[in-house]
Structure to design on (425 residues):
């Protein structure tokens, strides 16, 4: 197995490999080794302030064999203004990764490491993920694999044994899918009572929200978790690549991918994200757990919001192409009407209609505008204007039709997990 550790601190000019890298690439080639000619999949792992990278790598190493070669690119990163202690940890993590790779060799699995110091302004998980994914573009270009698959993972995650083989199988069997989300489940059984409650509520909140969007009929009702998603090389480039956000990079990235259509889910393999407290990003699992431990509650959106969203989306789907904005507002609550006025709904509706010739084109263009981001804004707006968030005990989950009963949060979460596994089978 070839192992590459490439430390890089300074941006330099590089020769264009393709249009995407010429326009959006930030760094020159970071991995020198040649690629396997049949390279099909590259796992990209951003790694910051992480002491357990080896657990992550070992989980991938223990995966079932794939038919085609796989590369794993770990981007060990820190900010230019990081402490000397953190920079030293990066070097230690790099050494541990290289040593692991030397001792764990497979013919079709290669590990590469990039140690990189990121500019203070942009340093974060988004840029680190972009560095690795852009390098994957370059690797696929070398291999001549136009439609290879980039898999996003995190350094504090582990995965099921069939993780690599099932992702490979899924993309081969679904040639039209540009990207997919992968089933996830936080391990909480061995946590203390407070941590356990925090992670159960947080994962339940994530699943509840996505199922609320499904209930409402939004076409982009998918999980948007950075450690459990995969995208084709071609789609990644076409939509402008990964962003540099310090958090939420996964959500905003997938909002660009969904409009391509045929987004899919891989429910036959599982990612196990860390359930630990963390302050590495301003929101997300680690932050939610930490805040809960400090006394901040995890509250849920009022189901009435999803009922209202469903009424609005149904009206648009049924009559949006023919009706005026005022007609579509009939029967909506005043808070929804205020929200629609705030996003210039009438003007946008007319603009969309002026650029399409039939209902199918209208709906596609409409939901490319009223996407997951606007849905989230809508939900937050109604939460702030009369439908405040509630404790889990006050939520009636029955509207989701997942066979849920009012029991413990853990029981509800397990029911949600099973429902999500079977939703698109």
């Amino acid at each position: 197995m070839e192992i590459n550790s490439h430390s890089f601190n300074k941006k330099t000019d590089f020769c264009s490999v393709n249009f995407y890298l010429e326009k959006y690439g930030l760094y020159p080639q970071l991995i020198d080794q040649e690629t396997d000619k049949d390279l099909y999949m590259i796992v990209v792992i951003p790694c910051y302030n992480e002491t357990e990278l080896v657990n992550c790598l070992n989980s991938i190493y223990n995966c079932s064999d794939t038919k085609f070669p796989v590369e794993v690119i770990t981007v060990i990163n820190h900010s230019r203004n990081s402490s000397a202690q953190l920079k030293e940890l990066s070097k230690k993590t790099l050494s541990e990764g290289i040593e692991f790779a030397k001792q764990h060799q497979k013919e079709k699995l290669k590990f590469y490491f990039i140690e990189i110091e990121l500019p203070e302004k942009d340093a974060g998980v988004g840029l680190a993920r972009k560095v690795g994914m852009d390098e994957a573009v370059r690797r696929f270009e070398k291999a001549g694999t136009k439609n290879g698959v980039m898999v996003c993972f995190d350094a504090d995650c582990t995965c099921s044994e069939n993780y690599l083989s099932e992702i490979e199988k899924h993309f081969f069997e679904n040639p039209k899918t540009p990207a997919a989300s992968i089933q996830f489940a936080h391990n909480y059984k061995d946590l203390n009572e407070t941590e356990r409650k925090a992670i159960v509520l947080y994962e339940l909140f994530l699943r509840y929200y996505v199922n609320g969007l499904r209930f409402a009929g939004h076409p982009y009702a998918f999980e948007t978790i950075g450690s459990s998603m995969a995208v084709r090389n071609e789609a990644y480039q076409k939509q402008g690549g990964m962003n540099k956000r310090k958090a939420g990079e996964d959500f905003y990235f997938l909002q660009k991918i969904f409009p391509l259509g045929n987004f899919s889910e891989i429910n036959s393999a599982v990612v196990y994200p860390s359930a630990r407290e963390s302050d590495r990003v301003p929101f997300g699992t680690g932050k939610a757990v930490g805040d809960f431990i400090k006394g901040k509650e995890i509250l849920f959106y009022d189901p009435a919001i999803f009922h209202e969203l469903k009424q609005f989306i149904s009206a648009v789907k049924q009559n949006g192409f023919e009706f005026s904005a005022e007609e579509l507002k009939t029967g909506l609550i005043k808070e929804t009407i205020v929200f629609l006025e705030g996003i210039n709904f009438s003007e946008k509706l007319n603009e969309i209609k002026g650029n399409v010739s039939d209902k199918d084109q209208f709906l596609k263009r409409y939901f490319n505008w009223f996407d997951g981001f606007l849905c989230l804004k809508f939900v937050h707006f109604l939460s702030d204007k009369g439908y405040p968030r509630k404790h889990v005990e006050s939520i009636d989950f029955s509207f989701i039709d997942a066979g849920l009963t009012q029991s413990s949060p853990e029981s509800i979460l397990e029911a949600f997990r099973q429902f999500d596994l079977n939703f698109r089978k």
Summary: Confidence is low (pLDDT under 50) at residues 7-17.
